[in-house]
Amino acid sequence: MGTKKNITQYDVAREAGVTRSMVSYVISGNSGRSVAPETRKKILDAIERLGYHPNKAARTLQQGAVGIAANRIGIVLRAPDMFRRPYYAEIIEGIHIAAHEHKHQIDFIRFFGELKDPVLFNELIHEEEIGGLILLSVGECLKERSDHELIQKMRERIKKIVCVGWKHEGLSSVMFDRSAAAAQDAEFLFAQGYTDIAYIGQQDERIAGMRQAFREHQLDDGAITIGSAFNMQGGYMAMEKIHGENKLPRALVCGSDEVAIGALSYLNEHQIAVPDDVAIISIDNIEDSAYTMPPLTTMNVQKSSMGQKAVEMIIDGFAGQGENATNILLPTNIVRRRSC
Q: What pLDDT score does 147 carry?
């Protein structure tokens, strides 16, 4: 039985009737020079017919390992639950969309805790593996000195790092202003005549935004009932606790749509009408928020755009460190529905 021939770029060029350099140009995804659509199609059709695939060893010899890795991006997530959370799914979608459009490859998706394994860290986090790194909501993982040291090791090895959804001193980031978003939610409720307002959600800048809005309206920010919640179950339980303590507010700001959906489930279950008894406004505008009963009024966060912008910052050279770090805040806007 004969040995199967290794298809080369020269074979593709002959099949398509073009030069080998043109084939190489199309395969590399280089956008610095235009290629006629019909020429590109001929090359791609020839690749499909011949079953051509790049020879990684040859490419490494030609471009070097660092050159090959320049078009690869790694993603580090806070924890596995992010895969089933709609908010993060949209961000990851945006990362993949931008990487595809710019002919870049997502090399891996890992969790922060996994990278504490030095063998795995050394395998993935170096310039011959990736040219850029996206850290998605990893800030919540930084609890011990060793966690901060791990971030520092990443910085020493990878020059282009973008924090998405959080900010770290000396690193580039893209996120939305959580404090301003919560303040805008409170302002929206004030405009509807509500002043008895509680907050359920993440214990972060959102609370500071709520308190600031209360103070600006000469209201006692210490009177805000605050419940801690991170997901639907947490929203349900926080609402149950508030109701059980006879602290049911006239209006409710939720730190995320998932929290709001949990709170709304409790209220519906106990026949507490929304918005007639309790008005609800939240933050994120995930797809599910338009299909609750009633549909949620929420602060739209540009989730997919955050992911896309992170990739573009890496590709365009804006993902600097130290004094060269770029920090981008994407604007938000209220989507009014029927929950308040």
A: 97
